[in-house]
Structures are given as structure tokens and as C-alpha cells.
Structure prediction request, 494 residues.
Amino acid sequence: MSGKKESRKAIVIGAGLGGLAAALRLAAAGWKVAVFERADSPGGKMNRWEAGGFRFDTGPSLITMPWIFEDLFRAAGTRMRDHIEIQSVDPIAQYIFDDGTRFSHTADLPEWLKTVRELENGDASGFLNFMALGARLFELSRKTFFQRSPYEPPDANVLKSLRHLPLRFAWGNYDRTVRRFFRSPHLRQMFNRYITYVGSSPYRAPATLSVIPYVEYAYGGWHIKGGLYRLVEVLTELCGAAGVELFTGSPVASILRRNGRVCGVRLESGETRDANAVVMNGDASRTPALLGDTQARPVPEAKRSLSGLVFLFALRKPLPDQPHHTIHFSADYPDEFRQLFDERRFPDDPTVYVNLPSRTDRSMTPGEGEVMFVMANAPANDGDRWDDSAVAAARKRVMERLRKSGFADFEPDVLHSAVWTPRRLAERFDMPGGSIYGRVSHGWRGTFLRPPNRDRRVPGLYHVGGSTHPGGGTPTVLLSAAITCRLIDYYERR
Ligand SMILES: Cc1cc2nc3c(=O)[nH]c(=O)nc-3n(C[C@H](O)[C@H](O)[C@H](O)COP(=O)(O)OP(=O)(O)OC[C@H]3O[C@@H](n4cnc5c(N)ncnc54)[C@H](O)[C@@H]3O)c2cc1C
Prediction:
């Protein structure tokens, strides 16, 4: 940026991961930045709950592509390793199936290939070919999708890269592609689950999302020592050091315009603040209402990504036989997704994810015991009230799945517990129905044409975070901050 950039003011609506990352990048580029967050703490979905010395992440539990996190620290003029310690999680996950089959995905490739051969009648070529497809899509994404907004004119490099798009398999349906590469019903179910990383159904998502499992297999999964919320704490500190003003408990009621251009915001308190650029980190579907469009409708339920039902348990006793992450699969995966997306209800037999970060990181407990995060997918409906009886009914199904896969009864050892329902997510962070990843990644449009990083109708207005391009999940949200800030640098240059 050039000229009198020091005097330029930017307002970021929301202190989620994308909002904090954008604020930090803008401050590093010379903007005077103020962040307004409606909740009483920063972090958005990446948040924390503490009880009796047990420390819980309430949202993300695994990060991938750590170099994207390093890039943010570099942009802020520092190094990630000077602030946070990331720990490799290996095995990344244990998988337990309804028929009793169980295996672990380990970073030890020969060991993992042995498991694949056992499941695939001695032949690992399907896995290797699926990874080869993922690798090509990943290289392509790095040059295109991860770098820039699809709404902006492509440059020559992008067009050159797109010529090499592996058309075969890439544009089909994800589940069909998985079935082409794998014969084992267990590997099919396991690879289909990766689409829930973007809150979508493997039966409706495009096969280009094969890039998601590839990233985990090629680059591993990571924990942040002290809990993933450490990242939010550190980014908040770095924002403070860079002169960013951060106000919590400060909902923005409207985005103000003068002569069609963004000129600031009005808070719910009535206070107004002026700005040359406004970056919306809240759900992009809320932007029209903030602009005063009274006709604006929320994203229809059918187009929302999944929400989640999360139980947090502080356990008196450790669970030394359990790994950090375990997936307890339902008996009938297509039926589970039918209930989630067609019937739009919590499944009868949910797939249950158990995360025990204290197996890797003892600093999350007061010494003894275990920190346990249990999650099942849920639809992002407006009408679901998630009252006590609905939570109790869902909890029974979750516990039944754990019992079926042999998880010992831990309920007598629960010292503290909390529950995050879709409704709680929706109300706290103003997310439609508690949808975690913005629009669902079903079909080509849903996946690639998300609400744009730069609002083309309202000059000076931008979006950042999981509801815009390139999508939800912590690394992609950080990529969105880089893309949005590059656009601000270009379009707001004076
Ligand atoms: C249970 C759960 C598990 C997850 N697991 C993983 C995982 O393992 N790995 C992974 O990578 N990702 C995971 N995610 C997804 C990840 O947490 C999100 O993609 C990411 O944190 C979203 O960041 P964001 O920038 O989009 O902002 P958000 O977190 O959506 O934050 C937006 C912020 O804007 C604020 N806001 C909204 N409207 C206003 C307004 N009008 N005024 C002021 N403030 C406003 C909200 O309160 C919120 O704080 C998970 C999420 C959840 C909930």
C-alpha cells in the first residue's frame, strides 16, 4: 500500500479466526483497525470453556496445513514458533465400525499401507491412486482456489493451471469417486467422512473435495499445546501489539454507506464509527440485513452446512487406552446423511467423534483425569429448540453408539460437563441455524461460488471467514484472510 495509508481506517465485524487474521494483516499493512465482536470473548467458533482446571476447546480440535498458520505470523512480522507449539497427532485417528472392525490411521506410511492391504484384499493401489488424484487437485488448488477469489479476473498463471485440471474423476460425485478407488466398505465410509470437514454430505459433494483427505494424509494433523484456543489468545495479543482496537460485547447493528460506498458501522449501542473499509467476519448471509435490506432472506436450510452437537466432559480418571481422536461410525452412513439432509433431524444412529486432547497434551487437565469432547453432526435448522428433552434424547443415541463400539461407561466419572447445541452456536455467533461452515459444499456452485471476498455492489465492503471463499475450517479461513487483504490492498489503494 502506498500514499497516506496510515490514516486509512478499517472496521472488522467479528473477532472469529478470520476476523483476527484480517485485522492483523491490515494492521501490518498500515491500516488503523477496530474489531467489534458481539460475544463476550474473541474466537467465534474457535472458543474455550474451562471448569475445575480442565480446559476445553469448544470448536476445532485438529489443524492441518500448518504452513498456512505460519504464513499469518510471518505477515505480522513474527514467527509462529515464538508464540505457540504445535504437536503432531499420531495416530491421527482410530476408526471403529459397527461390525467391530477397527484400525488406526498412522503417519507411518508402511504401517498404514499394511492396514489398507488388509482391508483391500492385498491391494493398496486404489489408495495410492486416490492420493495421486488428491495430490493433483491440491497442487492445482494451491495455485488457484487457495490464492484468489473466483469472482476476480483470473491471471495468466491461473488459466495455465486450470488447463491441467484432472478432469477424469474430479468433477463427479465424491462418494462415487471413493467407491471407484476402494472396495472395502470400511475405507469407503472412512474416506466419505472427510466431507463432513466442510459440513457437507459425501453423497452430494463434488469429487474435487478429494483434496481434503489428501491434505491430512500428506501433511498430518496437529494439536496446539494448551489447546487450539491458544491461537486465538496469541492473535489477540498480536493484534493489541499492532494497535488494533478490539471490543467484545459490541454487536454491529448496521453497515453505513455514503454515496453508495461503505463509510462505517453503527453498533447496537447506537454509537457510530467511520471507516474506509468494512470487513464482515460474521456469516456472509447476514450482510444484506446489516446493509438495511429488509427483504433479505436467510440462507435456506437446504443450503446450509451441518451444525454440530458437542458434549464436553471433565473426567476424574484418565483413559490411558484411548487415543487422541476416535471416530465411532454409524451402521448405515447413507441413512445417517439422509436423516441429516433430507429429513433434517438428528440421526437415530449418529457417527460420534471422541476427542481426548489430554492424551497428547496433559496441560489441558489440572493434573489427573481427562478432557473429553464428544461431537455428532446435526442439521442447521431454525426451528430446532434443543431444549433439555431434545438434548437428553440425542445424548442417549450418542452414548448408545459409544456403548456399541465398546467404549467403557465413563458417566460415573464426569466431574463437570457442558453442551453446545446448534441453537447455542446460532444465538451466540449469529450463525443461521448454527451452521458451522457457511453454505453447504454440494455441487459445483455451492463449493466454488461462495459469497465473494469483495462485495461487488458495495465498494469498500469485504468478507472474511468460513462463509466466504475458500470456505470453512481453520486453514481455509486463514487463506480467506490473506485473499481478502490482498483485494483490499488492490482496490483500496490510493
Ligand atoms: C464444534 C466445531 C468443531 C470444529 N472442528 C474443526 C476442526 O477440527 N478443524 C478445523 O479446521 N475447523 C473446525 N471447525 C471450524 C472452524 O472452527 C471454523 O471454520 C472457524 O473457526 C471459523 O472462523 P470464522 O473466521 O469464519 O469466524 P467465526 O468463528 O464464525 O466468527 C465470526 C464472529 O463474528 C461475530 N459476529 C457475527 N455477527 C456479528 C455482528 N453483527 N457484530 C459483531 N460481531 C459479529 C460472531 O460472534 C463470531 O465471533 C469446527 C467448528 C465447530 C463449531
